Amino acid sequence: MRDDPAYRADVEQVEADRAAQVAAARAAERPVLEDLASAGIKLDTVWHLYKHPEWVRPAIPILLDHLARDYPDRVLMGIGQGLDQKASREWWGELRRLYLRTSRDVVRDRLAAAMSGCATREHYDDLLAFLDDKRLGESRIYFVRAVNRIGNRTSSGRGRTAVESYASDPVLGQEASAVLLGRGRNS
């Protein structure tokens, strides 16, 4: 196959397409990287923020600003991935505001992931409201385990009772059932 000109042309085209996609993604994320660099956070790609935990906290306000901008989905995913769950806690209000206002599924997904990991007892009512808001789509799945974890820590069985009410929900049912059966962490 390596000597087949048609096969080689196909392989080279795939490689060229991939290189063009990578170059386009790098160019698209340049504005966020420049803003991070102006704050002393020098990265080749936003996806590498996890390698520098000391930079996560100062990066969060910049990431939130850029998460509300119009980027390709892949860039938004990388920006949202940088919202370290625990470090994001003090920005709960901004996370919540963006989560409720965005129309981009990828942004909503990354925000839900961050909020589910940084939520505490004072956020429990927000979590329940998110679960009830069908407009938020599949991203609500992230909150099922958080509701169980926080609710049960607040009062024995409180989280489990809340999760039981979602067991037949078409979007949340599978995750709720897994939690009720004790599958996975925080069950």
Report what the structure shows.
With 187 residues, this protein is mainly α. Helices cover 63% and strands 0% of the residues. The chain has helices at residues 5-28, 30-38, 53-67, 73-81, 92-101, 105-118, 124-132, 142-154, 158-164, 173-180. α2 (30-38) packs across α3 and α4 packs parallel to α6 (105-118). The longest helix has 24 residues, at 5-28. The protein starts with a helix and ends in a 7-residue tail after the last helix. The model has no long low-confidence stretch (mean pLDDT 93).
Q: Notable features of this structure?
A:
187 residues; mainly alpha; 63% helix; 0% strand
Summarize the entry for a quick read.
63% of the residues lie in helices and 0% in strands. The protein has 187 residues and is mainly α. The protein is globular.
Main sheet makeup: none
Report the total helices: 10
In helices, the fraction of residues equals 55-70%
**Nearest-integer average pLDDT:** 93
Global Rg:
20 Å
Topology order in helix (H) and strand (E) letters: HHHHHHHHHH
Distance between the termini: 51 Å
How many DSSP E strands?
0
Structural class: mainly alpha
* Low-pLDDT runs: none
| Inertia-based shape | globular
**Percent in strands:** under 5%
Topology, please?
Elements: H1 5-28, H2 30-38, H3 53-67, H4 73-81, H5 92-101, H6 105-118, H7 124-132, H8 142-154, H9 158-164, H10 173-180
Helix pairs in contact: 2-3, 4-6, 5-6, 6-8, 7-8, 8-9
